[in-house]
Amino acid sequence: MSANTPCIRSSVLSELNHCNIWLKMESCQSTGSFKQRSIGNACLQYSKQGAKRFISSSGGNAGISVAYMGNELNIPVTIVVPKTTSAKAIQLMREENAEVIVHGNSWGEANDLALTYVSPEAVYIHPFDDPYLWNGIAPIIDEVIAEGIKPDAVILSVGGGSLLSGISQGLKANSLTIPIYAIETEGTASLNASIKISKYVKLEDVTGIATTLAAKQVCENAFKISQNENIVGLTVTDEEALRACFRFLDDHRTLVEPACGATLSTLYDKKISFPSLTNVLVIVCGGASITLKQLLKYAEGNTPHF
Questions:
Q1: pLDDT tens, residue by residue, 9-25
Q2: Where does the Tryptophan synthase beta chain-like PALP domain lie (predicted)?
Q3: What is the pLDDT of residue 302?
Q4: Domains parsed from the chain with CATH numbers
Q5: Could you give the 3-state DSSP secondary structure of residue 305?
């Protein structure tokens, strides 16, 4: 229950980076983010196994997709979200008839409560740590290659690590051994912290405006990938992510959240150098609950440079 999204060449970003930048527009999914692939597949598989209710926890995008899938499959949904979740995200979940409970100051606290509702019939849909999720994301690479584009590198954002896990799986299935640039904001860089010391670590706290990246620890599968494959971890500031969101809106008429802006900022700010004929695949992960008003509010409170 996900779409084959457009893959477009960005003339602006290609010229700026002196190579071919291809944008996989996951923002075009029905729920506005790549989570429709991962969550959509997980919900579908568990429904086939007899699930009578879906239980989940989310900072936004995953919960919206669980709610959407529950509505599509006529299965009741309960989602626990932390207090940092935007009012827009909660609204979108409730519009899909989900029960939404606001609890805790972080996703981890919300998740702890969500797990108490799980039963043999009430199935837990993890927002980022489940092979079903990765299986749903992997076809992104199949779609890109089917269009005649063979990427030499991939750039994506990392929150809990499902996108990294799925893209890695898709590359392996297509016998592609290429670097993946894994981008986090400075306040949410749990993968980068683990890469630096080659140890699976958990952050004491997560901060900043990229709330959908705010997992204190990536899934173990993402960490293992970072240790065994060509993963380059990079961090950007909130200001850089925000600036990229506004520039992308101007250049491509598409509104994305700061979590996605983090990836785009590496190209707008030329943080990575690629050879001139390189095909770089960028996962525009989207963001269902962002609004221009919210971006402007972030900009006003974050920096004087907008």
A1: 999 999 999 999 999 99
A2: 4-286
A3: 58
A4: 7-34+132-302 (3.40.50.1100), 35-128 (3.40.50.1100)
A5: coil
